[in-house]
Amino acid sequence: MGKRGIDPKTVKKERKKNYKVSRVDRFRYRCRYFTDSGVIGGKDFVQEVFDQVKHLLTSKDERKFTPVGGLEGVYSMKRLGT
Length: 82
Hints:
Layout: H1 8-16, H2 23-29, H3 32-36, E1 40-41, H4 43-53, E2 66-67, E3 75-76
Antiparallel strand pairs: 1-3, 2-3
């Protein structure tokens, strides 16, 4: 069997970034945000879309949009676990 591990090119690239995950990379890594969240975006946008579709939803509770972890200013219509 050959050696296994992280490609040295990847390690070098991440060291240059000081192992920080950019806002764009966070979206790329978490495609679940787009599939599970229903609506994702700024708070006003999420509210606007929710108002347009709330008649289709069974819940009559007042909706509180939750911030998406690690993405300042981005909210989700549904709560997302980690």
